[in-house]
Structures are given as C-alpha cells and as structure tokens.
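subagent[fold] <- orchestrator: predict structure for attached chain, return tokens only, no commentary.
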Amino acid sequence: PKKDDNTVTMPWIEIRRADKTDPNSPIVQVTIKPLPSAKGELGYEIGRSLRNRIIDELSPHLPTRTMLSGGTGSIDTGTNKKVALEEYMRNLALQSQYILYFGDEFTQRGGDFPITQIPGVNILSASLSAGQPGRVIKVGDGPLSIWQFLELFINSYP
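subagent[fold] -> orchestrator:
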C-alpha cells in the first residue's frame, strides 16, 4: 500500500488471482514484502538473509507452495511446480519419463527446483549457473537456447 506522499509502507502483501477480474478465482501467487527494497536503509545482503530465514521458517508449513526471494525485498509464494506437474500428469495419465521440462531456476532456491524431485522427468535448463542438480541437462544460457534445442529436436524426426 502507498501513503499519500507516494511512499510504500512495510510490510505489505499482494495477492494475485488466476482471473484478475474475478475476486473468487483461485489465488495463484502471494507476494509478501517484509522489508524495504535494497535501495532502502537495509542493505541487499541483510535483506536477502532475513527473507531467506523467513522462507526457511515458513516453507515446512506450506508443502504445496514454493517460496522464493523475489526482486530485492519481497517473498513470492505460488503453487509448487512439482505439485502442479504431478497433478497435470495425473489428469492426463502421463508417465514421468514422457515429460520434457524446460526451466532456468534449478538451484536450491529456484522456482524450478521442485521439478527435480519428480523421478523420471527429463529436465532441460536454459541456465548455465552453478548449483543445479546433476540430472539437469544444461542446453544453453537464455530462452534462445531452448528455441534452438527444440528446432534441432523437431528437425531430427522425419
């Protein structure tokens, strides 16, 4: 929320729904802003450390949600991608070995990391960053690398 002088008060919570026009549609993301941004009085490292401590404390109580440090001063929480993909596979009666998953945040605190907990899913990363689990196949750095991989993949079949 903003005060009359256009400054942001702390903390605040933003709730995003699947359909922004329908107040009864499912909540898809909650952003918690416990601190000012890195440009505020708190340094970025202090803010990140505090947010990570909050995430570590809350995450065990929200097993179907993913909690991540977002931006420079917020905590984003949304449906855990593992839970979403498992539900998708169950609804379509798909086996994990037939899934090809693309992402770019497979490090421990990344939004795609929960996918690495589903045995058998084929995982391709568009990031060359260190700290990704060994079963993640790095195909390049950035979205263009995914397009290039898909083009090669599709053109390899008659």
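orchestrator: received. Logging for downstream: The mean pLDDT is 79. The beta strands are 12-17, 27-33, 65-70, 74-79, 100-103, 122-125, 137-138.
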